[in-house]
Amino acid sequence: MESSHWTAAGASPESTDRERVGRDDYETVERRVLVVGAGAAGARTAIELVEQGVDPEDLLVVGKRGHGDAHTTWARGGINGALGTHDPEDDWTVHAADTLNEGHHVNDPGKVETVTKRMPALLRELDEWGMAFSRTEDGEIDQRYFGAQSFRRTAFAGDHTGESLLDTLVERAQDLAIPYREDLFVSDLVTDGDRVLGAAAVDIDSGEFVAVDAEVVVLAAGGYTSLYSRHSSRDDENTGDGPALAYRAGADLLDMEFVQFHPTGMVGARYGDEWDGRLVTEAVRGEGGRLYNAEGERFMERYSPDQMELDARDVVARAIAKEIAEGRGTDSGGVYLDISHRDRDFIEERLPRMYERFADLSVDMAEQPVEVAPTAHYGMGGVVVDDVGETAVDDLYAIGETMAGVHGANRLGGNSLAETIAFGEVTGQAVAERLAAGDDSRGGGDTGAAEDRAADLHARVGAHFADLAALSDSDGTHDPEALLDEVRESLWTHAGILREGEGLAAALDELDDIRERAADLAVGDRTDRSFEFALDLGFALTVAEAILRGALERAESRGAHVRTDYPETDPDWRRSVVIGRDSVGAMRVDTAPVGTPSEAVQEALDAGYELDYHQLE
Span 260-374: which CATH code? Predict the structure, then answer.
């Protein structure tokens, strides 16, 4: 067979001599803006574009699954914004300070301020659009405690906030007649070396190739934590599409080593493999849930007597992992999370989805604890972008979990949904201004330039589609899903909650071996899941290498990144790790300085606000 090398490295006209797929053999779609990603970030960007005057027919939002079926729906606990519903002393500067403290001060302060300043107004806007927020007795948007937050600033809709948020955004987008296309897997971005020209995609339902000719591409394709064997996402999302696509197009990646392990994922040995690692929302602890080991000890008293179960996620996750490692875990390999001291009516009202889920598994949360253990949950790293989300590749933007900068070394719970909404607005405004200024990368009125651009686009997508055509129905040796599982196991083992240099180096060697075998795959046709797994494997190999190289470079422990061979936080390491390409296309590792907060946020930092957990007792 011909080599399926695309899965390991990506294809371009320079990297293959295979005959290109002709223009008559694939569909071409022309739009001014392509938004890749069906979650909150992509939806909010598209909405903002239309509200800024862009014709909906100039847009296309694409997703790998059905409309409204995105990872956003799994973000259950809440969305942050300093409304001050219960705590009027809260404001955006304290929110920013909490975010920087939780991120161990390697966040981009400007991006943090962009989110925290905008969120109160954006929460009220969502309310006006009909989002089903939980309410106080006075009818205000209710807010709850979340880990490491100084005040109650996490707005919520029961324990289904992400689902309610996405439903609201989808309804708004439909009211604005924004075009959407389902089941379209974007496999490559097309550039001329300096700017984006569009994208190549596969309709995973029909198997047809699709080229999208676009002036601007916005990547809102999620993160990369499904590349761990135990994770809170579904297996076919958060597989690194966004960062890998941007990197291959010429953008840099930032702080990929910072992977958040949520303290409370379901334990598969107790509830079944299909639920292994799935999130038990932080809202359970935010509403007073307590953690106990198998000996009945409320063990967070040892690790964090002041903030207890609502300390930072990295602190709580490591505490749970230590309890399990030292033999105080359950027979199923977890610890107990118990909210049964709360009234049944309270649990059913505040945590309806969690209550229903465990009831279906024959567990009554009002009477008994549930079993949990840490799970890979969120990638703080991502694509390097400027203040409005643009990458180093002209006209290519990245937002949501695909971008880096807001969260630093550890994400503050409730900030993921906030980031999607805030940067959706910011990027939508920036792209609308660019379009209004007439910056048409197709060549505007210059017929020759437009023809050259189109020829360049089709030459590149034709070569890429030729590689994908060779990949489908390939009669190789190795199963792409099995290799993807090997990547996941290697990352969990060597780049999980605890890391050390020798293990990280060993994982890079394992990755090289997987990459060699990925050149000889057994793949079905383009509608077969094995074809999708092969594409996922290509993204995984790129992103896993970036995680490992970043973790090996950062010779300290900070936030979610813990090196047992460098257990201390090093003040000289208050900088970011940047992953780029060297002159021969291999990964290059550099570092970059971190900015300083504004005077207003520095004042909030100096004030030393801190959560008082015992108000919940």
Answer: 3.90.700.10
Specify whether 86 is catalytic: no
What is the C-alpha to C-alpha distance for residues 193 and 187, in angstroms, rounded to an integer? 18
Domain boundaries, the chain: 1-258+380-617, 260-374
Which CATH superfamily does the domain covering 1-258+380-617 fall into? FAD/NAD(P)-binding domain (3.50.50.60)
Structure tokens at 570: 């090093």
Asked if 290 is an active-site residue, the reply is: no
Number of residues that make up the chain:
617
- The ranges of the chain with pLDDT < 50 are 1-16, 71, 73
Can you read off the two tokens belonging to residue 116? 């925290």
Q: Which pairs from 12-18 meet CB under 8 Å and 24+ separation? A: 12/460, 12/463, 12/464, 13/459, 13/460, 13/463, 16/463, 16/466, 16/467, 18/463, 18/466, 18/467, 18/470
Residue type, 304: S
What are the residues whose beta carbons fall under 8 Å from the beta carbon of 129, sequence distance 6 or more?
A: 168, 169, 171, 172
- Residue 443, burial from CB neighbour count under 10 angstroms (0-12, 13-18, 19+): middle
Residue 451: predicted pLDDT: 78
Catalytic residue among 76, 285, 350, 526: 285
Q: pTM of this prediction? A: 0.91
Contact (CB, 8 A) for 199 and 213: no
Catalytic residue among 262, 434, 488, 515: 262
Strand order in the sheet with 154-155: 79-80, 154-155, 143-144
